[in-house]
């Protein structure tokens, strides 16, 4: 996204239409992994569909850990952009992930919670699961510089 105006317009359009595919289309990595998002009121649920290109361990088969981490980080960025109605893309300061179990070759979901939002820094926690929201495959914490 090239300018401040573009980012703000893209976010505003996504919120008005409740269609975040246009926002995700502006991010090549989210397109590459096949990421999607649905919003239900104040809750956003991010989806990483089962895709052969995302497999890291073909024996299980399991999703590559980097794909899971990238999906979770991108989910946090989109969540911040939407709920802050961002003028700029938030910049990652720190990202820490805990892998809890293998992410099998099936649809994967994530939800984010903005745990603290200051004037310059926002903290986001991200949970990732597959078939049961209570059986997480990964959890992460991220800090972003927001302006």
TrEMBL record:
<dbReference type="InterPro" id="IPR029069">
    <property type="entry name" value="HotDog_dom_sf"/>
</dbReference>
<dbReference type="InterPro" id="IPR006683">
    <property type="entry name" value="Thioestr_dom"/>
</dbReference>
<protein>
    <submittedName>
        <fullName>Thioesterase superfamily</fullName>
    </submittedName>
</protein>
<keyword id="KW-1133">Transmembrane helix</keyword>
<dbReference type="GO" id="GO:0016790">
    <property type="term" value="F:thiolester hydrolase activity"/>
</dbReference>
<keyword id="KW-0472">Membrane</keyword>
<feature type="transmembrane region" description="Helical">
    <location>
        <begin position="62"/>
        <end position="83"/>
    </location>
</feature>
<feature type="domain" description="Thioesterase">
    <location>
        <begin position="63"/>
        <end position="135"/>
    </location>
</feature>
<dbReference type="Pfam" id="PF03061">
    <property type="entry name" value="4HBT"/>
</dbReference>
<keyword id="KW-0812">Transmembrane</keyword>
